[in-house]
Amino acid sequence: NSTKHIKMGPWDVVRKIFSEEEHKSMSIHDKCDLFFHDYNVTPLFVQENYLNAVPHKPEAKNKIKKIELFASAARSLSFGDLVEKNIRSHNAWSLLPVQAIFSSLVPGQVLEGHIGAQINFPAWFGKNSRQTKMSRLLQELTVHSRLKISGNKEAMNLDYVVPLERSIVSPLLRDGTAGIPQALSILSEYSLVREDLESLSELSSWPNTKTLFSEVESKVKAAFTRAYNKTSVPTPYAAVPIKKGSKADFDSLDTVPEEEEDVPDVEEEEEDSLEVDSMIVVKKKTSAKKVDSAGSSTSKGNKNSKRGRKK
């Protein structure tokens, strides 16, 4: 039990998955637990190294039966890959035990024996990195040539990469330095830059083969680069440099012209006055004389009333 919970690396995990000696003391749950040491990497290690397994089963002595064992393991790995795709795309993490059975338990049980060669690191990581790079290069070419080519990345890869490379590089191979103007005109026609030619060569080449641009002489390449740097044809996607203003321009921004005072318009005042507004009834002001006369009459009346009371 002391060694049961020791953390193992993926190389040790793969060795145990295909080891007949280790399986003798392991239950089905222990075999599935090997997958969960690192469920992101273990399926890749199993897929990379299952062909190096040497099965100890009696039927493995027959070549046809041995091929059938490897075919059964490959089929199980394919099912595990489908399960992993559903897990990643739908966040169905409850399916991890199912993936453990297809990607680890079944291949190890079918090819039970030992690993007969060095355990290799999964080549998937390098392939995935290269695929990401190629996709980025295709995207750049598609964006740069958008004014002339209406296809997407797939169309660029299938229909345009090889013809574009040949149309640019062929004049350099055929005419040498005399073919530089023709190559530059094609670059300008499709709004491509010098780096795009390297991308075209890399995308159109097959493994272990030379690119077409690598066959061009070094002096022709150097002359082509110098001619391209001298022409510097503007591209529609290039960033426009911002012109820096002088100090006088910034000083002029500080001096703000004085604003003229708003002179009220007479007509507007008349329109806004209460007297003109037909919706408002304005009380008429009584004159001061009427108020004084009314006040004096009331005061006289009060005096007369007081005199009458005394009598």
Automatic annotation (TrEMBL):
Residues 248-311 are annotated as: Disordered. SUPFAM superfamilies: post-AAA+ oligomerization domain-like. The lineage of its organism: Eukaryota, Metazoa, Ecdysozoa, Arthropoda, Hexapoda. PANTHER family: CHROMOSOME TRANSMISSION FIDELITY FACTOR 18 (PTHR23389), REPLICATION FACTOR C SUBUNIT 1 (PTHR23389:SF6). GO terms for biological process: DNA replication. It comes from Homalodisca liturata. Gene3D superfamilies: 1.20.272.10. Residues 293-302 have a biased composition (Low complexity). Residues 256-275 have a biased composition (Acidic residues). The keyword Transmembrane helix does not apply. It holds the Pfam family RFC1. InterPro entries: DNA_pol3_clamp-load_cplx_C, DNA_replication_fac_RFC1_C. This is DNA replication factor RFC1 C-terminal domain-containing protein. Keywords: DNA replication. One of its GO terms (cellular component) is nucleus. The keyword Magnesium does not apply. Residues 77-230 form the DNA replication factor RFC1 C-terminal domain. GO terms for molecular function: ATP binding; DNA binding; DNA clamp loader activity.
